[in-house]
Amino acid sequence: MNLYKLLCRPLLFLLSPESSHHLAITALKFAGLPLISTFVSSAYRRKSDALQVKTMGLNFSNPVGLAAGFDKNAVAAAGAESIGFGYVEIGTVTPLPQPGNSGKRLFRLKPSMALQNRLGFPNVGMKAVKQNIRRFRRNGYLIGISIGKGVSTPLDKSTDDYIACLDELYVDADYFAVNVSSPNTSGLRDLQHKAYLLSLCKTLIARSQELAQSHSIAARPLLIKISPDLSNSEMDDVLEVAISTGIAGIIATNTTTSNVETFGAVPGMGGVSGRPLSKRSTDLVRYISQKMSKRLTIIAAGGIFTPDDALEKLEAGADLLQIYTGLVYEGPSLASKINRELLKSGRFATSSKLAAKSG
Ligand SMILES: Cc1cc2nc3c(=O)[nH]c(=O)nc-3n(C[C@H](O)[C@H](O)[C@H](O)COP(=O)(O)O)c2cc1C
């Protein structure tokens, strides 16, 4: 019996989606408090070497991550660790604080097991995020930071925003996700086009190397987060840019704006996540994996609700996983359940070994 689905979810779903989200963040903050987290971890966390994934020079305690957008301001990462996530991707962070889009901007599409959002990167800005990370940072728990451009930055100046975030947050991240795929910041997805992306990635990799040298630390891996709405030839361009510039991996995928009315969503009201994204995201993971044969790390996001969904993504070639919408529909035990099943299935041992090779 799933207590979350029986009791908590019906109550949470009486609230507006954003209010439920704030409540979930508060609960995670609580779950991350020193004494509470010991108790919560003992119920949720699965510690086993067999779950570790070594990739991009990093050692993830398990492959299940909290996707970007859930903990935009780095206030709930300790709680996410307590309930079993192996890492958290903070953000998307922009240089300056910004409120995001006005009006209703997060919608539940219950029959489709999906969400639609047009949030537009509400966040407290890179300086406050840095302070928040420094408050909870624990040795060994990995933090990715998703970086993006501010709403008022013109597209031809976007590189400045990504650079500003790298400069400010470099030592505080274990990896950076370059978000060029959110549908809710005007023009952002154009940055996935070959010429833009090549110039952006070249500049960011060069800056990353300078920062690593000046801080005397290992260079932080940079990953590109892609849209599920790219055609195969656009995807090929992204992969070519990634390989030629030294990008470490691809996060597949962000939310979709294609045919959203099929899932009960309203076109123009933002990107759809969850179950409707599952197949497209898995297909893209498989495509990248087959083309790249382990030259890039692949993080799969999109419609992971069950251990079987997770295994499907790993079998398609993912090294790591990320979850957002599944957490809303399935509840706080999801990461723990997936890790338990990965251990039981024995199939993960194979994926883990493959991932270790690319480390
Ligand atoms: C409400 C909401 C906000 C999101 N915000 C971000 C964001 O700020 N940056 C980002 O890269 N992805 C963001 N995403 C996309 C998720 O990280 C993820 O890629 C996508 O939802 C697919 O995973 P899922 O089906 O498990 O939700 C957001 C998703 C949702 C539902």
Number of structurally distinct domains: 1
User: Residue share in helices?
Assistant: 40-55%
Low-confidence stretches: 353-359
Distance between the termini: 39 Å
Assign the structural class, choosing from mainly alpha, mainly beta, alpha/beta, alpha+beta, or little secondary structure.
alpha/beta
| CATH top-level class | Alpha Beta
Cross-sheet strand order for the largest sheet: 3-4-7-8-9-10-12-13
Beta percentage is 15-25%
Global outline: globular
Instruction: Give the distinct bound molecules.
Output: flavin mononucleotide
Q: Write down the secondary-structure element order.
A: HHHEEEHEEEHEHEHEHEEHEHEHHH
Q: What is the correct CATH architecture?
A: Alpha-Beta Barrel
Q: Got a strand count? A: 13
Major sheet description: 8 strands, parallel, barrel
CATH fold-level label = TIM Barrel
Q: Overall mean pLDDT score?
A: 92
CATH homology superfamily name: Aldolase class I
